[in-house]
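Provenance and format

Records in this collection were gathered into a single text stream. Each protein contributes a sequence line and a token line. The two records reproduced below are adjacent in the stream.
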Amino acid sequence: KQNEDIKDFYLGLTDKGGRKSFRDVKHYKRRKRWLT
């Protein structure tokens, strides 16, 4: 399941691109910390 989550993350990052993707990266890291 974790792999799928990462897959969705990268797909979304490629889909949006630009600044917003960078913001999503920060959000993803924060979320990852929560999950751990």
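Adjacent record:
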Amino acid sequence: MKRLFILIVSLVFVGVIYAQTKPNVKISEQQEIAVFASYYTYDIPANIVNKLDDGIVNLFLTMKRFKVNGYQFRFSESNLEQFISRVKELQAQKITKSEKFVDPKWGTITLTPEMLEKIVNSYTIVIPNIKSFGVETTYDDGQPIYTVTMGVSLKFFDPAEGVVFHVIDVKKSVNSKSGMSYMIEAISGGKSKSLTREETILLAVDSLIEEIKYEIRKIEKFKLYTTIVEVSGGRYFIELGKNYDINPGLELDLVKTRTITIGGKTRTVSESLGLVRVVNSEEDFSEVIPIFGDLNLGDQLVDSLRRGFIFRLFLGLQQIDYNLPSDTSLLGYFQSKWNNLNDTMGLVIGVSGANDGSYAFFEPQIDLTLVLMSPITITIDLLFNYSLYLRNLKIKPFVGINLLGSFSYLGSIYWSLYYLDFYLTTFSLGVTGGLNIEYLFTKYIGLNINVGYKYTLPVYNFIRVYDSFGNEYQSSAFTSSMIPDFGLRGLGGSIALSIRY
């Protein structure tokens, strides 16, 4: 009994000492904010402004760290100051009935006592302002192409301090025809469909809202803070989860704060010691794995502010293969060119984009590759990676589908002063699979080595012939049966620089 008593006293003593020496960590708490409607002077359709207003409110709601009250007040910068002064006056008067505020543009605003109390008790008031808006129309072969430019400013007002503590300025320019559309047109020779004027404006609004959300994450008062609350069997758990929009794929910095004195002034600085990744999220807690640094109970974590995307530039080799065409009547004229294709390794360069911020281990990816040989070959790979994290080393088996387009100028056939130019086009579909190994030097930079196998088969090919006058030469004699079975079939590999943002 005496031993048991001593053990209990010891545990209590250790607990008291730990509580007194536990680091001073920050954990995000829910904040009540008031969001006003967007002020604007431009000729913008009402449904577009409403979409922007709804989008701003919804982005705060989806972040789940805010209790949002939306108001249909629209204020210019000058009228906002008058409104805030009026609110302070009414607050001091402790009104018991509705009061009015007259705005020159939007008319009379009625403030009820309940509404006033909610506004002044808000942690923050958000005031959006549409600063710029324009639609430029150009024409491509009679087809209208719209370029929408839109800029929005958000002011963040602290009612308790009576000051604007942060301003976000975001501007986006969106085209009704994407870069991919232009590439498809160049390959196919046809015209792709572009967005309508309204669809382009709505796309610009969506782009603005996405950028605003990222900028909000950077504001110190709104940053996501949490801490390690449990270490068990090599697993690490943090406070907060889905209830604070913490989802698998989010990365958090391991930080340590300290105070320094510069010029007689005391300042708090934050030092990054590591990086963790959320791999599982429950309603009020989450599990993380370390990528950099050593984790301990009570460590401070903060949103790393990554967008969750990876951009890669790669260089490599890919095996090329072809089979003879069933009709060899044209083959003799360009035998040397086609012979060069037989079982060779082509040099490839390309760019890659992957989303590593939406899932714990799954990374959807798209590659755009150029094979530097004749025929010039462009491939698009849609890949599905599964990432196994060994701290900052990622091992990623992958599978995917491959879309290939190859284009070649075969040469000319002369008849005295008359000649024909021959162009070969092949579209293929295939599968790919392999292994990626990525080593992260920092949370932003990594090196990627890829080894895989591709197998493509032609699904559509044709020969185009132009005469010496530049006119397309039409003849039923030139058919796809004269085209060799060209494809990427075999092993390939590449090395890439990974840029994580």
